[in-house]
Amino acid sequence: MLNLISARYISLLGFLLGITPSLFAQSFTIAIAPPPLVVYEQPPCPYDGYFWIPGYWAYDGDEGYYWVPGYWAEPPQPGFLWTPGYWGYAGGFYGWHAGYWGTHVGYYGGINYGYGYFGRGFCGGRWEGGAFHYNTAVWRVNSSIVHNTYVDRNVINNNTVVNNHVSFNGPGGVDARPTAAEEAAVHENHIEATDRQRVHENEARRDPNQRYSANHGQPNTAVQSTAVGNNEAQHPAVEHHQPERPAVEHHQPENAAVEHRQPAHVAVEHRQPAHAAVVHHQPEHAAVAHHAASHPSQPHPAKHSGGGEKKEKK
Fold it and tell me: How many CB atoms lie within 10 A of CB 10?
């Protein structure tokens, strides 16, 4: 009962302040240990420079623990690495320590999240000259898109603390203490999780199938294969390359309605001025060109707006 009172009080306080409940921004003290980590297969990195954020159990004051799927995310700036959050036991309760971005990976409770986060440090890759290089012995990538890669298998054995899927630090969980380097990283300048990361967590919170009470440790979505926070502006050719097509289609029905009175046929054959010569029996194309110039004032394109051809990708 105490764990629910504590968690619900914090959630209510956040609600009154207009804050969306999130483990990134708030602290929870809970008397029930989080479930074991979900076992999953990492999807390939879809974009160059993206980072793998391991899945974790988050907590909601009303619904209890829920699984936040692992995902690929864009770092807030070059040179930054992700330190995962973790659950730690102290004073009879389990508390959440939020993850963060920084120039070094700090202490994350010794939790073996896998895929580069084996309990100590990080071995999924490294920054070189403003570009991130992926260790494909640890992280999966789409080789047709990601080309900065290398292979280092030694780091796996050197950084692994334990591999029993325990999700918390403390009695009955992982017994690990921060190293001097990890403690130093804690005091460096950090950036909290990005807005898109928060949105991702809140989406998991709203999904009933992600709750432990419903899935018993086997959520429907263990990982998200698409990237979180993908900047759509990076792909303008996919989203915005078709607006020019209706403009081409609108120019032709003017001649079609006046000269041929067959708009459906001419709309397809609009790039062949030879049709005008056949209809008027005038081999001189200049005469046809004069007719086309004389009719812009007649707003016939309204009958052929191109609505069936225009596509908009959502």
Answer: 18
